[in-house]
Amino acid sequence: DTGVSQDPRHKITKRGQNVTFRCDPISEHNRLYWYRQTLGQGPEFLTYFQNEAQLEKSRLLSDRFSAERPKGSFSTLEIQRTEQGDSAMYLCASSSDLGLRGNEKLFFGSGTQLSVL
Amino acid sequence: GENVEQHPSTLSVQEGDSAVIKCTYSDSASNYFPWYKQELGKRPQLIIDIRSNVGEKKDQRIAVTLNKTAKHFSLHITETQPEDSAVYFCAASKRSGGGADGLTFGKGTHLIIQP
Fold this sequence. Notes:
By secondary structure, chain A is an all-beta fold. Chain A has strands spanning 5-7, 10-13, 19-24, 31-37, 44-50, 53-57, 65-68, 75-79, 88-95, 107-108, 112-116. The termini of chain A are far apart.
């Protein structure tokens, strides 16, 4: 499968614990995005990387959340001291910079479903 | 920031009929409008997109129209089939060369195709 892959698919944790998710984008894509989706809602933008640089962060991304993309390939999203309100599907997406054209298509992974008990 | 409104939240149509989903956006600088289809438990999949320099785009049974003046865009599905049943999301963003803004999504439309 050459699409965006995410690991794990499901994560159940107790409130207060730390969790980390991984995303492997499509190999030739230099842009990587994290979104969060709750039941009955559309995905909400969290953060965006171009190569290894984190260029944009949503106000939704509290200081308990941190994302990295150390070598410009895979990315990790860590949530510290999880709260019940963090329960959601965390989606990763990637795209390719088309240069002067600017606009690009986002391809999503299957997500990590987080349940905080 | 951008705000995207999507209607209706649920749409039930008879198989073979057409379905229309409408979205409005608030930021006149937005210039990229994709539509995603998400089946239960699966990833959102891009089905069609349109940029602000065109008013309509068609791909087989799916078409999207854009009215920049009114800041609204619509998804049209003709000759609906059972496999079209899913949640459809519209989105909008400002994209310019060298930079990127995250997509802002609507809340989704649950399309039900009645046999």
